[in-house]
Every structure is written in structure tokens, then in C-alpha cells.
């Protein structure tokens, strides 16, 4: 195998079955985590930590990795990636090499092929199940002490939930992925609460809607797992914004950590960091605080209110729904960034309308664009629906043209969209000679 062939293998079973599945089916009807259960349980060693929620899972996972690296050897599994699949598998912040990635896929292929050969045409092995196995096998080879595993969109039918986790973190849950997880907040919470399992030491939750928190606490009580909640057991205060990130204090039951700095922007990122710290402190109460602070300053997590250029000011964020837009607008207001040009590249089946209608009041201009990824559908129906609601937009065939149009507006630019748009934006910035602050 070469790297592309190894990557294609991860998705081969899914691609085989996709045409035999109903697009509108719920996860419970088309996902089969039982197929990878034995493999992932057998690969579960050391202390594993699972992370779910509706947004910000990757931010928390990266923060927790940086924090725990102050004392432990840490494996990190996240998704999706921006430029290269290797980004999904890291040990102490370093991506897996092409050679190790290819070798591990080839080794695991033997076991997964045995499963694949007996499957009906409509049932696949989940790509995230194969990826989780790659991560765990790599971490085992590298003798990691703690592994952080980011879940996909759900938990109950997510293969990552086959990993034996000692701790779990649950970021804020809101209405998203309704086609797959359920049409109500309660349905989505009842799916994601399954990350809490008997035998875990503790679960940690962000601040939640009252009904969601009730579901999480009931699940924790049923499984005999202690649960700690942002605002009840830990919180952040003395919070300040700058173009270089956030500064805050983390307050816990028996201690306060003062003057923490992170190079990410937004109140939600402070909450993410405090949530990660709450878990880390319980794992090892004597974590070296000054080392933690230094590690957090080295945190790099692209496309989360990422200031890609200061002159001209260009901000990049992988935002695909109106709920995720709220902290972006809050950050723009705090930094006094006004009269922006918004570039939006969100597929038809995601919340493009919510995002565009949400940025309307802060934008001088709005430009709709699309990506070259064939799995995403972009049609003129977006423009027509917006026009019917008296929201006027310009259109562009790709990010390069969209940026050319936006720079003529001579205003701050924010790019909002799906991961493939972020990838294409990054690739364009790398070859365009545009001033960057990466």
C-alpha cells in the first residue's frame, strides 16, 4: 500500500454499502458498532478518556492532551483532519508518520477483511471504527500512558464507544445532526449520554440545558459513575480577550489556577480549557502547573476562530450551524471587529441558512462559495432561499475567487464552512503569498 491506498481502505467498506442505504435513516438503523467491538476492546490499554458533545470536542481533546503531556506520554485520536489524515493520530503532539500509518493499516486489514467478507451489501464497517483501531494500535506501540479519544457525532452507535474509557467528557449538547441522532434535544442527549458507562471513575460535563443535564445525571446515577459539571464543580473567571487568545483563572473545588493563557479565542474556549483541566487534575492532583501553562501556550488547533492573517484581517472557522456561530459573534464583538465580509461554504444538507441569516446583521457583504469535494452538494437553491427571505448574497465557484471578491471590499474577512472548505482555504493560503500568522 501507499498512503492514499491505506486511506482509501479505511473508507472502502462504507463506500461499498453507501448506495444500498437510505440517506435519511437514523444511526440506529445503519451503524453497526458491534462489528468493531472485540477489536477495539482488545486494543484498549492504559487510561483511555472519551470525549463527546455537539461542538468543541476536538478543542477539548487537544487541550487535554497538552495539559497531560506535562506529566504523561499521551496518545490523541481526533477527527476530521484539515490537510492530511495523519493529523488524526498523535503521540505527545506529533503526527503518525506515513510509514507507521501504512504499516498499521496493513496489519489491521487482516482482521477487518475477515469481518468484511461476511457482511450484507447494506452493512459497512464504520470508518471511525477502523481509525480508532489504528490509533489504539499506534498508541500501544508507542507505550502511551493516557489516550484521548474523540467521538464522532454521537455515542450510542459510535464505534469509539467500544474503547474501554476510565473517564469521559461531555461538551455542550444542542440540536445538530438531527437526521442521524434524533429531531429533539432529548433524543440527542439520550444518544450521547451513552458515553457514561459502569466502571468509569468520573464523567465531566460542560454547562447544559436543564433537560440535557437531567438526562446526563440520571445516566451517571444508573451506571454508578460520579459526574462533575461546569458551574457547579468548576468554572472560569477573570476572563479577558485579545487577538492572541484568552486569559483566565480556573476555579475548582479545592484550588484556583491563576492567569492561564490559551492561544484560542472565545469564551467557549475558556470553558473547554477548564473542563479539560477538571479532568486532568483528578487524574493527577500534583500536575506541574507551570508546565501546564507553558504547554497550553503551545496549543495549535486550526479553524477555530483562527486568525490566519492580520493584514488583511482574515479569520477561519469550521462553523456549519447557527448554534456554533454564537461564540464567533461574541468574539467578534469582544475584539471590536465590525462591518465584516463573510464567506460561507456550507452544503445544502447543513445549516447554511442559519449561518448566513446569523451573520447578516454584522456583514457588509456575504459571499456564498463551494468546495470541490464531490461528497458535498451545493446548489443555487441556497441563494434562492436566502433571496426569498430578503438576504442578498454574491456567489463564487471556489474559495480563491471568493477571497478575490472579498478583498475588494476592504473589510475584515471571515470564512465559515465545512472542513473541506477549510482545507482548500489553507492550501490556497500556503501558495498565494498572503501574509499569514499561523
UniProtKB/TrEMBL annotation:
It is an enzyme of class 6 (ligase). Keywords: ATP-binding, Ligase, Magnesium, Metal-binding, Nucleotide-binding. InterPro entries: Folylpolyglutamate_synth, Mur-like_cat_sf, Mur_ligase_C_dom_sf, Mur_ligase_cen. NCBIfam families: folC. One of its GO terms (cellular component) is cytoplasm. The keyword Magnesium applies. One of its GO terms (molecular function) is metal ion binding. Residues 51-280 form the Mur ligase central domain. Gene3D superfamilies: Mur ligase, C-terminal domain (3.90.190.20), Mur-like, catalytic domain (3.40.1190.10). Its EC number is 6.3.2.17. Belongs to the folylpolyglutamate synthase family. This is Bifunctional protein FolC.
Amino acid at each position: 500500500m501507499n498512503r492514499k491506498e491505506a486511506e482509501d481502505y479505511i473508507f472502502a467498506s462504507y463506500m461499498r454499502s453507501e448506495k444500498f442505504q437510505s440517506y435519511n435513516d437514523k444511526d440506529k438503523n445503519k451503524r453497526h458498532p458491534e462489528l468493531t467491538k472485540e477489536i477495539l476492546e482488545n486494543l484498549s490499554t492504559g487510561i483511555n478518556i472519551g470525549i463527546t458533545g455537539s461542538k468543541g470536542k476536538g478543542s477539548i481533546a487537544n487541550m487535554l492532551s497538552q495539559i497531560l503531556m506535562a506529566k504523561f506520554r499521551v496518545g490523541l485520536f481526533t477527527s476530521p483532519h484539515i490537510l492530511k489524515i495523519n493529523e488524526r493520530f498523535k503521540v505527545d503532539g506529533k503526527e503518525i508518520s506515513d510509514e507507521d500509518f501504512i504499516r498499521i493499516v496493513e496489519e489491521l486489514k487482516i482482521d477487518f477483511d475477515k469481518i468484511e467478507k461476511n457482511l450484507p451489501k447494506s452493512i459497512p464497517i464504520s470508518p471511525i471504527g477502523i481509525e480508532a483501531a489504528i490509533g489504539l494500535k499506534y498508541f500501544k506501540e508507542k507505550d502511551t500512558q493516557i489516550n484521548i479519544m474523540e467521538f464522532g457525532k454521537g455515542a450510542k452507535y459510535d464505534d469509539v464507544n467500544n474503547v474501554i474509557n476510565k473517564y469521559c467528557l461531555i461538551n455542550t449538547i444542542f440540536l445538530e445532526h438531527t437526521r442521524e441522532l434524533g429531531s429533539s434535544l432529548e433524543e440527542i442527549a439520550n444518544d450521547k449520554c451513552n458515553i457514561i458507562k459502569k466502571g468509569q471513575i468520573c464523567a465531566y460535563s460542560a454547562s447544559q440545558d436543564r433537560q440535557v443535564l437531567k438526562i446526563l445525571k440520571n445516566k451517571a446515577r444508573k451506571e454508578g459513575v460520579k459526574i462533575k459539571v461546569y458551574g457547579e464543580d468548576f468554572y472560569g473567571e477573570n476572563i479577558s480577550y485579545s487577538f492572541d487568545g484568552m486569559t483566565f483563572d480556573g476555579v475548582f473545588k479545592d484550588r484556583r489556577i491563576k492567569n492561564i493563557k490559551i492561544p484560542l479565542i472565545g469564551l467557549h474556549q475558556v470553558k473547554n480549557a477548564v473542563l479539560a483541566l477538571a479532568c486532568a487534575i483528578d487524574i493527577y492532583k500534583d500536575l506541574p502547573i507551570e508546565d501546564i501553562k507553558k504547554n497550553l501556550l503551545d496549543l495549535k488547533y486550526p479553524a477555530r476562530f483562527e486568525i490566519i492573517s492580520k493584514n488583511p484581517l482574515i479569520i477561519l472557522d469550521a462553523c456549519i450551524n447557527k448554534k456554533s456561530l454564537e461564540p464567533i459573534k461574541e468574539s467578534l464583538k469582544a475584539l471590536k471587529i465590525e462591518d465584516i465580509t463573510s464567506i460561507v461554504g456550507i452544503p445544502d444538507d447543513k445549516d447554511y441558512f442559519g449561518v448566513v441569516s446569523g451573520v447578516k446583521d454584522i456583514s457588509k457583504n456575504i459571499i456564498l462559495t463551494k468546495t470541490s469535494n464531490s461528497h458535498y452538494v451545493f446548489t443555487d437553491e441556497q441563494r434562492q432561499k436566502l433571496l426569498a427571505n430578503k438576504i442578498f448574497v454574491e456567489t463564487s465557484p471556489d474559495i480563491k475567487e471568493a477571497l478575490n471578491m472579498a478583498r475588494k471590499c476592504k473589510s475584515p474577512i471571515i470564512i465559515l464552512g465545512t472542513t473541506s472548505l477549510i482545507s482548500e482555504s489553507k492550501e490556497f493560503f500556503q501558495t498565494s503569498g498572503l501574509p499569514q500568522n499561523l
